[in-house]
Amino acid sequence: MTGDKAVALNRAAAGDVNDTGTLGQSIAQFGRNTIMPLVGDLLRTASRAGLIACDDPAEAADIYISLLIGDLQVRRIVGVLEELPRAEIEQRSNRAFTLFLRLYAASPCPGGKTAGPFPGRSSHRGTSRP
């Protein structure tokens, strides 16, 4: 999403908006419109297995991608940010996953144990976490 080829395609799509507009539509169709349902399905499966507490997998998928990418893609497209080094990509990925789990951790079971593999975590949606 933020690699050189993706940036070049998105720059071209931005330039095509007032001409044909087809490049942007194609990128969306074979990019986000294909990937987001897959991420949503994965999150739905994780929720059903008790690994996360997720009432709306589509919304959760959107939140995860937002945490992961943020405005990186736009900053790359407008040329104010170079391609990220592998270590920074991994750091951002780990941070997004950790924050996502804070939002969607499975609720504790009786006795203080947590449903799923995230011991001691509970759902923090709508509350601040110390």
Brief account:
The protein has 130 residues and is mainly α. It has helices at residues 4-16, 22-30, 32-48, 57-69, 72-77, 86-104. Helix 1 (4-16) packs across helix 2 (22-30).
Termini, distance in Å?
33 Å
Tally of DSSP β-strands: 0
Estimated radius of gyration: 18 Å
Tell me which oligomeric state these chains represent: single chain
- Structure classification: mainly alpha
Q: Give average pLDDT, whole number.
A: 84
Largest sheet: none
Helix proportion range: 55-70%
Unreliable spans = 112-130
Overall geometry:
flat
The percent range for strand residues is: under 5%
How many helices? The count is 6
Describe the structure.
The structure is a single chain. The protein has 130 residues and is an all-alpha fold. Helices cover 59% and strands 0% of the residues. α2 runs parallel beside α3 and α3 (32-48) packs across α4 (57-69). The longest helix has 19 residues, at 86-104.
Strand and helix map with partners:
Blueprint: H1 4-16, H2 22-30, H3 32-48, H4 57-69, H5 72-77, H6 86-104
Offer a few descriptive terms.
130 residues, 6 helices, flat, 0% strand, mainly alpha, disordered C terminus
